[in-house]
């Protein structure tokens, strides 16, 4: 048979899962998701169990790239909106769909340090010494400051 081309259809398979990532507020970040299958799978992203809207009109700071990766132009973390959460991607084609592993996106915040003795010398032989001086380190959400 001349001109006959046979392709074997395959259900989607995730080949690169997103991973836990920590990023500073207003910085860019990419969550990766790669999949194979025939026909080529489409990628859909979810955050905290809800399908993400990723058009420029819906979310101008976040877009799904042609490769399937989720790109944040700048990570948002405020009282109104936060990109922090649990993400996963789903690859689908006519033969099925498959979900990636979960990945937690953490937006780095500010920290307060509580000292045992605020008058304790911190320099010893010209080096900073914190051993024995810190009682607690407390994370404070960045949104408290915006």
Automatic annotation (TrEMBL):
Single Gene Ontology BP annotation: cell development
InterPro entries listed in its UniProt record: Ig-like_dom (IPR007110), Ig-like_dom_sf (IPR036179), Ig-like_fold (IPR013783), Ig_sub (IPR003599), Ig_sub2 (IPR003598)
Ranges for domain Ig-like: 12-106
Keywords: Immunoglobulin domain
PANTHER family per UniProt: BASIGIN RELATED, CELL ADHESION MOLECULE DSCAM2-RELATED
Protein's name in the database: Ig-like domain-containing protein
Organism: Hypothenemus hampei (Coffee berry borer)
């Amino acid at each position: 048979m001349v001109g006959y081309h046979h392709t074997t259809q395959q259900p989607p398979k995730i080949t690169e899962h997103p991973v836990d990532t920590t990023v500073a507020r207003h910085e860019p970040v990419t969550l990766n998701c790669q999949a194979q299958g025939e026909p080529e799978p489409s990628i859909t992203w979810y955050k905290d169990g809800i399908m993400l809207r990723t058009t420029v009109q819906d979310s101008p700071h976040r877009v799904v790239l042609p490769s399937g990766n989720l790109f944040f132009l700048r990570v948002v973390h405020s009282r109104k909106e936060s990109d922090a959460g649990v993400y996963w991607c789903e690859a689908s084609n006519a033969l099925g769909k498959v979900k990636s592993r979960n990945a937690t996106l953490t937006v780095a915040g500010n920290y307060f340090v509580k000292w045992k003795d605020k008058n304790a010398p911190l320099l010893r032989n010209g080096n900073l010494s914190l051993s024995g001086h810190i009682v607690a380190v407390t994370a404070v959400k960045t949104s408290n400051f915006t």
